[in-house]
UniProtKB/TrEMBL annotation:
The lineage of its organism: Bacteria, Pseudomonadati, Bacteroidota, Flavobacteriia, Flavobacteriales. Residues 47-107 form the SUI1 domain. One of its GO terms (molecular function) is translation initiation factor activity. This is Translation initiation factor 1 (eIF-1/SUI1). GO terms for biological process: formation of translation preinitiation complex; regulation of translation; translation reinitiation. InterPro entries: DENR/SUI1_TIF (IPR050318), SUI1 (IPR001950), SUI1_arc_bac (IPR005872), SUI1_dom_sf (IPR036877). It comes from the Bacteria. Belongs to the SUI1 family. Keywords: Initiation factor, Protein biosynthesis, Translation regulation.
Length: 115
């Protein structure tokens, strides 16, 4: 019996090719910029959340893995839940100031966006 692959991410989204000359090569991914070269933005958002406030961190340039690691450290810092979607970190609640202080200490350039 053949072994099933758990997700398409293991193959980088590659499923099947009918091209006889095709060779499967994974491209080198995006490299993560060091913190002092990152320009992040901190937003407060209520859209599509049932009136509840969420803190959004946008502008991260790097791999999805590094973005998830940063999101996990922010969620741990605030003691709340959150997620990573479309290159944005979403933290439940209004923790913009606390997150901005933490990111500045880590060496990131953070800009406050919105009220």
């Amino acid at each position: 019996m053949s072994k099933k692959i758990s997700s398409f991410e293991d193959l980088g989204g590659f499923v099947f090719s009918t091209n006889k000359d095709f060779s499967f090569e994974q491209e080198e991914g995006v490299t993560t910029l060091p913190p002092h070269q990152q320009k992040l933005e901190a937003h407060l958002d209520k859209k599509n959340r049932g009136g509840k406030i969420a803190t959004l961190i946008t502008g991260f340039e790097g791999t999805d893995h590094d973005l998830k690691i940063l999101a996990k450290s922010l969620k741990t810092l605030c003691g709340v839940g959150g997620s990573v979607k479309n290159g944005e970190i979403i933290i439940q609640g209004n923790f913009r100031d606390k997150i901005m202080d933490f990111l500045k200490k880590e060496g990131y350039k953070v800009k406050r966006v919105g009220g």
